[in-house]
């Protein structure tokens, strides 16, 4: 009698993990379709500066908070629910509402004092001029009793 060669052994834990993953996707609306609670962005290297463009429809400058530390740009925002629409009125709810934070590590150092941001037509544009390259600095070694 010939044996049927199974490509893989049945693993109940793998089946359980797959089922849990499916359940968690259904609990988080939009996640199954690739939606994220923060807006998408593009980062460009334009030679003398980096430019970040964030999709921010419906957000005003007051809804956004930007900060930069070393090579990390942090963007915080909040998309508020319309006050005149009750939760039970929604028949379809695809846009994310609520607070979000996004941190982006930049490919190189920037001049933090020269960073500018503008919110226009649903796009947040952040211009980050690159910092001047620093020349290597020699460090003198002091002599002592032992080295």
Description of the structure:
Residues 32-145 form the SHSP domain. This is Heat shock protein Hsp20. It comes from Isosphaera pallida (strain ATCC 43644 / DSM 9630 / IS1B). Belongs to the small heat shock protein (HSP20) family. Keywords: Stress response. It is a single chain. With 147 residues, the chain is mainly beta. The protein has a domain at 37-80 and 97-133: Immunoglobulin-like (Sandwich). The protein has 1 helix and 7 strands; from the N terminus they run αβββββββ. The chain has one helix spanning 12-27, and strands spanning 41-45, 49-55, 64-69, 72-79, 98-105, 116-120, 123-129. The strands form 2 sheets. A 4-stranded antiparallel sheet has the order 1-2-7-6, with no helix packed on it. A hairpin with a 2-residue loop joins strand 3 (64-69) and strand 4 (72-79). It is flat.
């Amino acid at each position: 009698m010939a044996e049927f060669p199974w490509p893989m052994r049945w693993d109940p834990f793998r089946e359980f993990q797959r089922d849990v993953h499916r359940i968690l996707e259904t609990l988080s609306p939009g996640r199954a379709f690739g939606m994220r609670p923060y807006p998408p962005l593009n980062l460009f290297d334009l030679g003398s500066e980096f430019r970040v463009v964030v999709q921010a429809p419906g957000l005003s400058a007051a809804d956004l908070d930007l900060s930069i530390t070393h090579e990390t740009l942090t963007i915080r925002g909040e998309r508020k629910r319309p006050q005149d629409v009750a939760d039970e009125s929604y028949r379809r709810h695809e846009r994310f509402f609520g607070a979000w934070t996004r941190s982006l590590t930049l490919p190189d150092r920037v001049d933090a004092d020269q960073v500018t941001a503008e919110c226009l037509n649903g796009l947040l544009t952040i211009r980050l001029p690159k910092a001047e390259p620093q020349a290597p600095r020699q460090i003198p070694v002091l002599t002592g009793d032992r080295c």
